[in-house]
Amino acid sequence: xxxxxxxxxxxIVTLCWGSSYLFMKMGLDSISEFNLIALRFGFxxxxxxxxxxxxxxxxNLQTLKYSMLLGFILFVVFTAxxxxxxxxxxxxxxxxxxxxxxxxxxxxxxxxxxxxERKLLVSILLAIVGxxxxxxxxxxxxxxxxxxxxxxxxxxxxHIIVAGFVTKKVDTLSLxxxxxxxxxLFGLIFSFIFETPAFPNSTESWIAILVLSIFCSGVGFIxxxxxxxxxxxxxxxxxxTLEPVFAAILGVIFLQEVISSxxxxxxxxxxLSIVLSSxxxxxxxxxxxxxxx
Length: 293
What we know:
Layout: H1 3-18, H2 20-27, H3 33-51, H4 53-57, H5 61-84, H6 90-97, H7 100-112, H8 118-135, H9 144-166, H10 172-194, H11 203-228, H12 233-239, H13 243-255, H14 261-278
Helix pairs in contact: 1-11, 1-13, 2-11, 3-10, 3-11, 5-9, 5-10, 6-8, 6-9, 7-9, 7-12, 8-14, 9-12, 10-11
């Protein structure tokens, strides 16, 4: 797969995730947090497993181990997000979760000593400014939900980096599907310990769970794993900053929300950051040659 096709898949993933906060709030109206995690990832795993069961039958032990690791990280990420939704706004959450774009290169630089290209550094700065224009509402106050969102962003940066490493070693489709199963399993275990597991009790909640399962979890996380084999973790994190743009667009379409003038500026800056990161900058070196005539 060519890198631009991988980037297109990641944009589709981001579009799916742009709707997730709305449907998570709908789902939490009738079921608890760990219960929601178990259901959304459980249904996604069952559906994807039924479609690609022949592929899963060929899965090796190494893929299973990596799937368990990625599934646990996903469980941690969405535990922080679902509990964070209780005490923060969706706009704050959109901004704070997008801090993944900072954490990915930061971890790569500190832990793996990887040097960040200048154009990517500029792209990240543009993305952060764009996200703040699009999502932040003042006065901005730090709540426990905000801290949980920051932790979720950091944890998801780890997921992106680990996925970027393990996708080079195993079958990405099997890895993407089975990580969903492990995330669901961890959610179910914690739901039995701290909650009373149950199915949604309203049509609205069922719709929310099915959308979260099929599109936000199934399509989203499987395509992410498949695409990450052909791109870098830093670029993946940068593309994911488009999530609040899609969330804002969906809010306008389905909830009749209004985007402010600063919001439009933020969206343009985010798109510009993605375009800049895609541009191949050719450096020409001038070599002085003395010729004698």
